[in-house]
Amino acid sequence: MKKIGLKHINFLTDSFSIWQHTNGHSIDRIHGYALDDGARGLLVALKFKDYEKAEIYLNFIKKAVGDEKIINFHDFQKKPLNKPWSEDALGEAYWALSVAINASYQSNLAQSIIQSMILKVRNFKSVRGRAYAVLGASLMDLDLASSLINSLKANYLNNITNEWKWIEDELSYANAIIPLSFLCAAEALKQPTLEDLGLEMLDFLNDISKEQSCPIVIGNKGWFPKHGRKAIFDQQPIDAAFQVLANLKAYKQTNNKKYLKEAKMYFSWFWGNNIIQQSLIDKRHESCRDGFSKVGVGLNCGAESTICYLLAQEEIWPYLTDEEKNV
Question: Is omega for the bond preceding 234 within 30 degrees of 0, making it cis?
Fold first, then answer.
């Protein structure tokens, strides 16, 4: 295991934003640029204090959400694509902008972008859109955090059973961001009940996302319906990364070492502790593959996979022992 940096992110980033996908280690320009990648790019650039990249991503977010019309995608010619916008992507943008303000990075610009989108954020219906927004609102707008997390809490309490401790009738994509939002809101709003619910949800997710000491995150070839079977393939980095973040947050708030153990286990998924026993990390290029299927690791080393890995790496690295780092 070796800590990686921004080499691949630098490769993917131009003066406009960050390209979505690659074919191996060549940029696959046909897919253009996405708002959620720009938002996550801003998060990782701020984490690494790379303010040149942060400025690129911030300006891209402004182009995508600065007017009344939200632009989820730009094509390879940097032209907006006329497609429905996503609350999830806008929620990630709100989260990233809030982190920028909290870090005193271009706060006036970030705040002005938020003002152009805040009415939409307040009326989010998407579960993940609200969860992403809670992560940001917990840093800077406690009234909004309270409103959104209470709506999520109502959804959760109305949906759970003794056997199904989840907010929806299906586990799908980026699941751990939801319990993470409860934990962040609990801390910001000083409401222990929210922490209890977040931990209950996280424990359920952890339990069904592993077999013994091997993490098996939910596959996108069928997901995991409430009354169905969990899909094993294809597994994606965003799921493992967010389980690292959620479990680390749980550990910091509870000091329960089981959550640190879980965080380390889901981080090891990237390095070969998975059901195909292959690493997704290319140490030379400092990139992360976009997941694996039955036939092996994917060729795409896109923005989402590498950024999500880096967010997880930067959070967990101080908690790894020297022995764990040298595996």
Answer: yes
